[in-house]
Amino acid sequence: MGPIRGIAPLLIRVTRKKIESCREAGQEVQLYWVKAHAGLQGNEAADTAAKEAALNLKCKPHYNTCPISYVKRLLREKSKAEWQTRYQNSENASVTKIFFSSPEQAYRAFKNGRLTNKLTQMLKGHGGFSEYLHRFKCKGDPTCPCDQQSTQDVRHCLLECPRHALARLLDLEQVIGTGKITMEDLSQVMNNAELRRHFKNYATKIVTTLLKENKSKLS
């Protein structure tokens, strides 16, 4: 049985106190169950008094109240603050932090949009990248075929690899209008819905190519 809530605990305490007072005065107290709404004078009087109290009695509550929406907002803000602290202090998600400075930024960016498998691989650095596959011993060489020297990771593919230069130019650099795109630009791209759409196209092209050439099963 769960805890008794509302005014019931107060009524129980008052009733017990009155019973104890009667017993201390030498009076005998007996409790009986009676059928409700059966015309019993005492029970009818109690019902009438209860209705009058519920409808007419106006008094201050014994506790301070606040809207449920206010409590929810406080809990939400506390949760977001804790999430942000964990995100910043964690050694994980190093690639994701390139794109999003906070979990809330990531949530706003994709709460109304579809986050695809290929886009997720780009934002996390997982999947068909040679660096990732090599780290888990799924591929012997972490380098990119473009020069057999550069590590094929998110940074290289997005910003440097000449094999994706045309897509980079058409999907991002011309759209942004700032010339050669940098790592610092990526967080700003994620804050703009139109730029995110172009980035999604660009990232999908890259990951599709990587999955084919690295024969990854993560597609």
TrEMBL record:
Gene3D superfamilies: Ribonuclease H-like superfamily/Ribonuclease H. GO terms for molecular function: nucleic acid binding; RNA-DNA hybrid ribonuclease activity. It comes from the Eukaryota. Coiled coil: none annotated. Residues 1-55 form the RNase H type-1 domain. It comes from Pieris macdunnoughi. Pfam families: RNase_H (PF00075). This is RNase H type-1 domain-containing protein.
